[in-house]
Each structure stands twice: as structure tokens, then as C-alpha cells.
Design goal:
mainly beta, seven-stranded mixed sheet, globular
């Protein structure tokens, strides 16, 4: 199992960012993808998950309305898009399938 994420992003406050997570080594539609982030000096924060088979999503309450999870079954790739970015969104974003994690994507929000 391998999850490979897109590279680091720098955004201005108020902008949006989309991070990808390409899965391989297993049947993509058979397992949820979770999204987790870790801000500097903070613990892991679960953002939610997507079921790639039907696109069903579950969002942590904190992120509802500002985060969108999608999945492209043709490329076995999951995405998280975060809008209306603020400095507090600066963090490393991870995708995970059970015990398998992506390498993380640094998102920095700064003017």
C-alpha cells in the first residue's frame, strides 16, 4: 500500500488549496480515505473521510462547509480542498488508509 501526496503549497489568506493523495497497491474503492492534519506544535486533528466507492463523505464538525473531499476512481486519487484559508490552517495535511499514511503535504497560509 502506498499513498503519495502532492507537494507543498503556499497560499494567501482567503484563498483555497487542493491537496491530492494517489493510492496504489490495493483496491481503491474498497477502503475509506481519512484526512488528518497537524498544525505546528499541535496534535493530530481528524478532518473527516471519504468512501471512494460512492463518494460518501463525513466531515468533522469544525470543517463542515469549508472542506470538500473528492475521489477520482479512474486514477485512484483522493483530494481535499480547503477554502477561505486562514493562518490557523497552516499545517501538514495527511491522507490515510488504515495504518498506511501519505508522506504529508505542508500547507502554509501567509500574506
Amino acid at each position: 500500500v502506498q499513498l503519495v501526496q502532492s507537494g507543498a503549497e503556499l497560499r494567501n489568506p482567503g484563498a483555497s488549496v487542493k491537496v491530492s493523495c494517489k493510492a496504489s497497491g490495493y483496491t481503491f474503492i474498497n477502503y475509506y480515505i481519512d484526512w488528518v492534519r497537524q498544525a505546528p506544535g499541535q496534535g493530530l486533528e481528524w478532518m473527516g473521510r471519504i468512501d471512494p466507492e460512492d463518494g460518501g463523505t463525513k466531515y468533522a464538525q469544525k470543517f463542515q462547509g469549508r472542506v470538500t473531499f473528492t475521489a477520482d476512481t479512474s486514477t485512484s486519487t483522493a483530494y481535499v480542498e480547503l477554502s477561505s484559508l486562514r493562518s490557523e490552517d497552516t499545517a501538514v495535511y495527511y491522507c490515510a488508509k488504515g495504518d498506511a499514511w501519505g508522506q504529508g503535504t505542508q500547507v502554509t497560509v501567509s500574506s
